[in-house]
Design goal:
The protein has 394 residues and is of the alpha+beta class. It is 48% helix and 22% strand. The chain contains eight helices and twelve strands. Strands 1, 2, 3, 4 and 5 form a five-stranded antiparallel beta sheet that branches. A five-stranded mixed beta sheet has the order 7-9-10-12-11. Strands 6-8 form a two-stranded antiparallel sheet. Helix 3 packs antiparallel against helix 4. It starts with a helix and ends with a strand. The chain binds adenosine-5'-diphosphate. The site of adenosine-5'-diphosphate (ADP) has 21 residues, from helix 6 and helix 8.
Length: 394
């Protein structure tokens, strides 16, 4: 740099003395820098070669403008990049389009009567800059993409969790409302019955007393059933202790239905479709009966008065199937995946007011899972429902 600067200052003296024109000043600068440049490039490339990372770097320092101010204070711009051909001070010439500006510098000299303001800019070019950046940043890019994915999935998970919590809270409130509702009726009936028993009116009247005692017994059984239901529901399928036996499933189904018919109103028609498959089933009779009776009770509770109980073998998946079909209110498809959840009841605004705790189907499903089987529901809403239990053939 000092090589062309000293030379330029010497020529400036000649210019001042009138021995040099402005054009000659610039030509001399151009000649001087072309003379220095090969040496500079050699130094620059040697320096680059020593670097561990081999980048293809181009460097140029170009003249931007030269202003001369004489002793009277008149400024004359003798060079600028817009009007003159580029003068490369140091480095190699490459297209301005691919040049990256590194800095601008100003050299001022006011030792001689003519003051000099000499401006230059340094540009660099790194071939394959984008590819290099991409390579250098690829780790970071992958990491940030992973982080982004992680944050998005975390957000998704939290929202899901929040919705689940909300639903759980609603289900619990519903359960408390339901159980209060369920307990109220037997308790008030019990209190009425005991009042009747202790009243003067019942004193000595056997008929009234017997009637009151029967009411007390019935309500007592009802309360007991409610409590049993809540207690049973605390069992998950892993905790259900089955005592399995192998028995004839057609006979079992027929006997179960014979008994069940006795406990229901004569207005309800219960059809049977029991295949005599001859293939024994391995199950716990007590639990399996509870599950089937739960389904039969629901079928009647939710409006069914024509039921069909079927039993047979599903050859496709090697299972015994037991299905209970009803012509009740049905279950809209949007609720079907929830009805086996603990405490879940279809909200009252979508059905009529049926009493219950939302535990029956949950418990039924736990029993069937304990047997290694499955339970599914088919219903189009309003057209009744079919619940099917499947137990694997041993
Ligand atoms: P609960 O009968 O005490 O409400 P369940 O677990 O037995 O509880 O049933 C859950 C929900 O599934 C019920 O609230 C009801 O809306 C619906 N459901 C069950 N069985 C039937 C059926 N056979 N027909 C129509 N809806 C049913």
């Amino acid at each position: 740099m000092w090589l062309y600067r000293t030379d330029f200052l010497e020529n400036l003296n000649a210019y001042e003395n009138g021995n040099f024109t402005e054009k000659a000043l610039l030509t001399a600068l151009r000649n001087k820098t072309s003379e220095i440049n090969p040496g500079f490039l050699q130094l620059f490339n040697d320096g680059l070669a020593k670097e561990e990372e081999k980048y293809n770097v181009k460097f140029k320092k170009i003249l931007t403008s030269v202003e001369l101010t004489d002793s009277l204070g008149v400024t004359n711009e003798i060079y600028n990049t817009e009007t003159n051909d580029t003068i490369i001070l140091l480095g190699e010439n490459f297209s301005q389009k691919e040049a990256l500006l590194i800095n601008n510098s100003t050299w001022q000299d006011d030792q001689s009567p003519i003051k000099l303001n000499f401006k230059s800019s340094i540009y660099m070019n790194i071939t394959d800059w984008d590819a290099i950046m991409l390579k250098e940043l690829s780790g970071l890019l992958i990491l940030s993409s992973l982080l982004f994915l992680f944050v998005v999935s975390l957000l998704y998970y939290s929202i899901q969790n929040l919705m689940k919590q909300k639903r759980l809270a609603e289900i619990k409130t519903d359960f408390i409302n339901n159980i209060t509702h369920e307990l109220k009726t037997p308790l008030s009936t019990l209190s009425l019955a005991t009042k009747t028993l202790t009243s003067e009116h019942a004193n000595g009247n056997k008929e009234i007393a017997d009637n009151a005692v029967q009411i007390i017994e019935r309500q007592n059984t009802r309360l007991q059933k409610l409590i049993d239901q809540v207690l049973q529901s605390s069992l998950g399928y892993q905790e259900i202790q089955l005592s399995k036996e192998t028995f004839n499933s057609s006979i079992f189904m027929n006997e179960l239905l014979d008994d069940y018919i006795l406990s229901i109103s004569s207005e309800i028609k219960l059809q049977r479709n029991i295949d005599s498959t001859g293939i024994p089933i391995e199950a716990d009779q007590f639990y399996l009966s509870t599950a089937i009776i739960n389904l039969l009770n629901n079928a009647i509770k939710y409006g069914g008065n024509e039921l069909t109980a079927s039993y047979g073998i599903d050859k496709m998946d090697s299972t015994h199937y037991i299905s209970i079909k009803d012509n009740g209110i049905g279950i809209s498809p949007k609720y079907q995946r929830f009805i086996f959840e603990k405490f879940y009841r279809i909200s009252e605004k979508d059905t009529h007011n049926y009493k219950g705790l939302g535990l029956g189907l949950y418990y039924t499903k736990q029993i069937i899972k304990a047997h290694g089987g499955s339970i599914l529901v088919e219903s189009e809403g309003n057209k009744g429902s079919v619940f099917t239990i499947k137990i694997p053939i041993i």
